């Protein structure tokens, strides 16, 4: 049975047959039950909603009659459906699993906005618009709809689409986000003056209606439009620019683009060099959200997608793509990774609605829904045109004579054109006769034999030093710098700079500063390197060079040069992975140890764990084992730090770093005070100022959980001062965040906001996306406390998206808890509960007691606000147990406040008053009384108690007595 309230109230059977509920009072009963979405509605409330101030003499009997009529209507349409309406004290509940409002929320949460908004058939509860019972639900649903429309508009604008929001802005003139999106749409369409007029009109309305100025975001957008900020321009696809026109592919281009409109996976197949990549890139230019993912130098398609999109981890790549709103992935050169690429593509198409994939491969991916298109060779006319375009000195008839020998393969044509410019037509024709036509690779198609002959011919034209450099440079993944080439390719008799320049001139190597080989040429050169017996030695030099680079970079990642060295390691990510793959065990252990802090700063937890597992499989290493345990904990999974620490021998510096980082990784899990204090003592002994600052920052976090606000402030301040002296921006933002937390607890929201804003700026400068999520959530908490619920929701939503992109589960949980706090304070209790329960099992698995205590308290308040005293009591008792186990007196006080609310709701007002007094005393004892902005729950509970007891005051019992009293029922 399907129920609908996003429009007039409707009921349909599962096969779409309408269910008639003709009597007005019965339809009203149905609407009231649906509005409560699966929660029990008290009989007295139903009577009031149906009859208002004029109920019948025997109202309860009349209500039972209406319930009987509703059950009969449902059962008549679908036998057994009467059981959906259940009598449950103190009233009735309708189990409407197929309610469109619930489906709408789920689709919005998944980012499927078009589907979600398509569920609306008009104003919510349109046929009960004037009914008092519908007012709150209609307002809430309308707010969700408008937010979804704004999200949809933002999504479409981000992809370069067009949106028309004029009518909505007219209907909701004071909604600033909507006005901002309308301005962006107008500006993106080239209508700058109209965008400025929309701002001016909104500013006047705000002043006249509310006496306010526009918010900072709207003002900033206005200023950006005035200066024509390039960041406001519609997005372009993330594709390489073409250096020449696409010749002879008009029909193929139309076919591929038409296919992408009809199906979600198109694979371009054909031999190497036929032009699959070029055709795919041109076909993708019509998609503003397109990203090219080059797989030629990759051994992991998921990792390649992550890097192409600038993501940080792959644990939930589908969620990351949904968050980024990626519309098209161009997966280039899949053939050497056909099976993992096929599996990844199938998973992404299932998990990312609206995503399309355009792949190039020498064979189809062979998964359901694929449209394979064999890219044909160029016909003679197009091949001649391409050859004369690339070699302007060739006459058309001379080019036409050469074309049949090139088999219509664009790469062969390009290489032939390169030689034609230097050899001339006759010498070129002679070389083609000797190489392209005669050289063969048996067992492969003819065009592949011809293409290999072209590369053979180019190779034969090289000098000995050129061949040496070209084959050795092929060990680099994603190109290399001159310095890297010098370490891997040089020989005493080679002038490397001159040799590289000649290879660039021959179009076998791209110009610097990073030299790259064409994919097919690289494969060819690796074979030549193996034939020369140099493969292992060259890979060894490659691994040694990049290990030295990483070890040079590592200390600079903890000081003023963080930004520059992060960029260096980013550029060499593919080479560093290649080095790890081929390095001997001892070198691999050095390399992962040098890269671990880089992986942490970049949020690449899964990549780090994969490489650490590989080297640990080659033999035990204390540092690698410690890094692995810490990264596992940071990923939100349990690990045993003690086992890793037991491996350290005669390495006090390494042990101290491991102790500190493992303590840092376990924030909110267990007691790591001993680890932190031991590490801090060693750092002081060794004169390691960075380590001491890091340990003090972690100790400040532990002081927060113990309710020691003085230590929290002092340790964080000392840590911040040291990190400032050292020039470490990561450390500064960590320490500053602890100081912001102290300011938040003491009610100094302005200072807390300033500290967290500065912290966000620092991590944005460094590109530390994983840290951005924490900082945004922290600002979201402050927005919530200052009453700016919309800003709080926006900040927490962005933080959750960033955390999900990197599979950073602790940060994602923190952000979603913030969304729950915001939703509850806005009165959206179902939404708050859904957010909270998402993480409860995960917290219990990790024994994360502080987090569990907060979640149980929030769930308890949700139950209390619904009027469910027994459920609230049970939830708050569970929260009290977690709070006591955590040792955090502020968490204990929160649990006691929640228990006071549950007991007062059940009529035990004297007991509730004593529990509130005990909670207040507990907070006062640690110097953290509730600021006014955080007293909402306590004020509500106190008001209920005063109504029963008047102004009579009660004494605060000792904590042990309060705990015993709390459990009395």
UniProtKB/TrEMBL annotation:
| Coiled-coil region(s) | none
Spell out the Pfam families in the cross-references: BTAD, HTH_77, Trans_reg_C
Give a yes or no for keyword DNA-binding in this entry: yes
CDD domains on file = BTAD
Q: Which InterPro entries match?
A: BTAD, HTH_77, OmpR/PhoB-type_DNA-bd, P-loop_NTPase, Sig_transdc_resp-reg_C-effctor, TPR-like_helical_dom_sf, WH-like_DNA-bd_sf
Q: Which residues bind DNA?
A: 1-96
Q: Which residues form the OmpR/PhoB-type domain?
A: 1-96
Per UniProt, the keywords (alphabetical) are: DNA-binding
PROSITE patterns per UniProt: OMPR_PHOB
Q: What family, per the record?
A: Belongs to the AfsR/DnrI/RedD regulatory family.
Which named protein is this?
BTAD domain-containing putative transcriptional regulator
What is the originating organism of this protein? Answer: Nonomuraea mangrovi
């Amino acid at each position: 049975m399907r129920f609908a309230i996003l429009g007039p109230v409707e009921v349909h059977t599962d096969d779409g047959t309408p269910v008639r509920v003709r009597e007005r009072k019965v339809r009203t009963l149905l609407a009231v039950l649906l509005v409560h979405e699966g929660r029990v509605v008290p009989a007295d409330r139903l009577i009031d909603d149906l009859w208002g101030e004029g109920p019948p003499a025997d109202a309860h009997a009349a209500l039972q009659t209406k319930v009987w009529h509703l059950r009969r209507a449902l059962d008549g349409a679908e036998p057994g459906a009467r059981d959906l309406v259940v009598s449950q004290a103190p009233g009735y509940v309708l189990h409407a699993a197929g309610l469109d409002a619930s489906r709408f929320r789920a689709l919005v949460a998944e980012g499927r906005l078009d589907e979600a908004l398509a569920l609306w058939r008009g104003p919510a509860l349109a046929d009960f618009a004037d009914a008092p019972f519908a007012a709150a639900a209609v307002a809430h649903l309308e707010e969700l709809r408008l937010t979804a429309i704004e999200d949809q508009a933002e999504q479409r604008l981000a992809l370069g689409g067009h949106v028309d929001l004029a009518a909505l802005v007219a209907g909701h003139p004071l909604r600033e986000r909507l006005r901002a999106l309308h301005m962006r749409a107008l500006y993106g369409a080239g209508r700058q003056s109209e965008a400025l007029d929309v701002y001016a009109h909104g500013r006047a309305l705000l002043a006249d209606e509310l006496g306010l100025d526009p918010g900072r975001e709207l003002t900033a957008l206005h200023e950006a439009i005035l200066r024509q900020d390039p960041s406001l321009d519609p997005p372009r696809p993330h594709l390489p620019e073409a250096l020449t026109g696409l010749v002879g592919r008009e029909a193929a281009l139309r076919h591929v683009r038409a296919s992408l409109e009809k199906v979600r996976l198109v694979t371009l197949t054909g031999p190497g060099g036929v032009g699959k990549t070029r055709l795919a890139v041109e076909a993708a230019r019509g998609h503003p959200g397109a990203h090219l993912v080059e797989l030629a130098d990759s051994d992991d398609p998921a990792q390649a997608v992550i890097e192409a999109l600038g993501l940080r981890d792959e644990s939930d790549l589908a969620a990351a793509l949904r968050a980024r709103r990626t519309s098209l992935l161009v997966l280039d050169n899949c053939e050497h990774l056909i099976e993992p690429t096929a599996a990844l593509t199938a998973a992404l198409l299932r998990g990312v609605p609206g995503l399309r994939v355009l792949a190039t491969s020498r064979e189809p991916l062979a998964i359901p829904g694929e449209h394979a298109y064999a890219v044909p060779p160029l016909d003679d006319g197009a091949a001649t045109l391409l050859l004369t375009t690339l070699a302007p000195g060739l006459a058309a008839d001379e080019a036409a004579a050469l074309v049949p020998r090139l088999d219509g393969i664009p790469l062969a044509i390009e290489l032939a054109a390169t030689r034609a410019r230097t050899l001339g037509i006759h010498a070129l024709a002679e070389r083609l006769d000797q190489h392209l036509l005669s050289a063969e690779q048996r067992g492969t198609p003819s065009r592949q034999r011809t293409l290999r002959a072209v590369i053979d011919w180019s190779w034969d034209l090289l000098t000995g030093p050129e061949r040496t450099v070209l084959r050795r440079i092929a060990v680099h993944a994603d190109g290399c710098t001159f310095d890297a080439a010098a370490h891997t390719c040089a020989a005493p008799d080679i002038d490397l700079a001159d040799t590289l320049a000649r290879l660039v001139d021959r179009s076998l190597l791209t110009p610097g500063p990073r030299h790259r080989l064409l994919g097919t040429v690289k494969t060819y050169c690796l074979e030549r390197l193996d034939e020369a017996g140099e493969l292992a030695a060259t890979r060894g030099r490659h691994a040694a060079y990049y290990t030295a680079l990483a070890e040079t970079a590592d200390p600079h990642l903890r000081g003023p040069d963080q930004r520059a060295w992060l960029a260096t390691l980013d550029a060499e990510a593919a080479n560093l992975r290649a080095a790890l793959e081929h390095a001997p065990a001892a070198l691999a252990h050095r390399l992962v140890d040098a890269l671990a802090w880089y992986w942490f700063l970049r949020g690449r937890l899964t990549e780090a764990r994969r490489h650490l597992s590989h080297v640990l499989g080659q033999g035990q290493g204390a540092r690698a084992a410690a890094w692995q345990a810490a990264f596992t904990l940071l990923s939100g999974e349990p690990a045993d730090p003690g086992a890793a620490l037991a491996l350290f021998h005669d390495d006090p510096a390494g042990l101290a770093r491991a102790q500190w980082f493992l303590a840092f990784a376990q924030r909110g899990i267990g007691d790591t005070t001993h680890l932190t204090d031991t590490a801090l003592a060693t750092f002081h002994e060794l004169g390691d100022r960075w380590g001491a600052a890091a340990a003090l920052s972690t100790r400040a976090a532990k002081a927060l959980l113990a309710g020691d606000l003085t230590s929290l402030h002092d340790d964080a301040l000392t840590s911040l001062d040291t990190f400032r002296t050292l020039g470490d921006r990561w450390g500064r933002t960590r320490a500053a965040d602890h100081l912001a937390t102290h300011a938040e607890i003491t009610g100094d929201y302005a200072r807390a906001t300033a500290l967290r804003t500065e912290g966000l700026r620092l991590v944005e400068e460094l590109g530390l996306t994983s840290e951005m999520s924490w900082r945004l959530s922290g600002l979201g908490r402050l927005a919530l406390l200052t009453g700016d619920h919309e800003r709080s929701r926006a900040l927490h939503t962005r933080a959750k998206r960033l955390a999900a992109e990197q599979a950073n589960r602790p940060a994602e949980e923190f952000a979603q808890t913030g969304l729950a706090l915001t939703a509850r304070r806005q009165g959206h209790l179902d939404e708050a509960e859904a957010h909270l329960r998402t993480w409860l099992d995960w917290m219990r698995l990790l024994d994360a007691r502080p987090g569990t205590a907060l979640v149980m308290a929030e769930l308890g308040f949700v139950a209390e606000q619904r009027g469910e005293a027994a459920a609230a009591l049970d939830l708050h008792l569970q929260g009290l147990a977690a709070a006591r186990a955590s040792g955090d007196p502020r968490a204990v006080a929160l649990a006691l406040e929640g228990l006071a609310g549950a007991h007062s709701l059940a009529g035990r007002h004297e007991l509730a008053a004593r529990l509130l007094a005990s909670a207040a005393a507990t907070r006062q004892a640690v110097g953290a009384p509730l600021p006014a902005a955080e007293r909402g729950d306590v004020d509500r509970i106190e008001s209920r108690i005063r109504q029963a007891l008047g102004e009579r005051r009660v004494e605060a019992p000792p904590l042990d007595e309060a705990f015993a009293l709390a459990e009395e029922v």
